[in-house]
Amino acid sequence: GDSVTQMEGPVTLSEEAFLTINCTYTATGYPSLFWYVQYPGEGLQLLLKATKADDKGSNKGFEATYRKETTSFHLEKGSVQVSDSAVYFCALRNNAGKSTFGDGTTLTVKP
Amino acid sequence: DAGVIQSPRHEVTEMGQEVTLRCKPISGHDYLFWYRQTMMRGLELLIYFNNNVPIDDSGMPEDRFSAKMPNASFSTLKIQPSEPRDSAVYFCASSLAAGGGTNQPQHFGDGTRLSIL
Fold first, then answer.
1. I need a labelling partner for A55 at 20 to 30 A (CA). Which of A30, B86, B107, B112 fits?
2. How far apart are CA A2 and CA B33, in angstroms?
3. Sorting pLDDT into bands at 50, 70 and 90, what band is B100?
4. Half-sphere exposure of residue B100: CA atoms within 13 angstroms, side-chain side
C-alpha cells in the first residue's frame, strides 16, 4: 500500500534559520503530494501542494518540489519565524482519492 | 464560507457509553474522511466516503466503531460501547473530486477531543 515517511522530529531552530523537513513516499501510479500544517488545538490546514512531477508548490515562503525520480517532496523555508512553530505533515493522495499522511514533524522556532 | 463543522468540540464520558460524533462537510464536496489522532499512533484514517458511499473502512479499529453518511451534508461516527483506549482527537475532513479527484486537498474541521473515563 501507499506510505509516507517523514523526517523524525522534533526540530528546533533559531529565528531566521533555514528549514528542511524531508519527506519520501511510496505509491503506485501518480499521486498528488501535499504539505499540511497543524497549530495547537486546530485541524490540519493545507500549506502547499504539487500534482505532477517537477511541480513546485509554494506558500508563505515555504516550498516543496515533486521529485518523481527520488520519490521525495521535501519542505523548505529560507528564514523561519517564531510563528512557524507547528506540526507539519507530508501527505499523498492516490488515484482512488485515498490520502496517506506521514507521522508529522514538530517544529519549534526560538526567538 | 463555512468550513467543515464538527460537534461536539469536547466530549467526556464513561466507559461503556455510546458516543456519537458529528460532521458537516463543506457544501459541494464529494469526499468525506474520518481520522483519529493520538500521540502514540499519529493521524489514522478510519473511513472515507465518496458521494455518501463508504469506499474504504479498513482503518476502522473494530466493530465497536461505525460511520454513516445519510446525505451529502451530514456524517456520524459512532462508538458503542466506548473504551478508555478510544480517547483521542477525531477529525472530519472533506474535499472536492474535480480533475479525477486526486489533486484536491482536504479541508479539516477543528476536531472532537474525546475522553473516555
1. B107
2. 17
3. low
4. 11
What is the CA angle A1-B90-A12, rounded to 5?
80
Q: How far is A4 from chain B (nearest CA, A)?
A: 12
What would the pLDDT profile of B18-68 be if each residue is shown by its tens digit? 999 999 999 999 899 999 999 888 899 999 999 999 999 999 988 999 999
In whole angstroms, give the CA distance from residue B13 to residue B50. Answer: 31
State the Cα–Cα distance between residues A22 and A19, nearest whole angstrom: 10
Write out chain B residues lying below 8 Å of A104, CB-based: 42-43
Q: Answer whether A24's CB lies under 8 Å from A103's CB.
A: no
Residues of chain A with pLDDT under 50: none
C-alpha cell read off for B83: 473504551
| Chain A residue nearest residue B58, CA to CA | A98
Assess contact for B49 and B32: CB atoms under 8 A: yes
Q: B87 near B37, Cβ under 8 Å?
A: no
Question: What are the tens digits of pLDDT across the range A41-51?
Answer: 899 999 999 99
Q: How far, in Å, CA of B82 to CA of B117, rounded? A: 9
The DSSP code sequence of B49-92 is EETTEEEE-TT--STTEEEEEEETTEEEEEESS--GGG-EEEEE
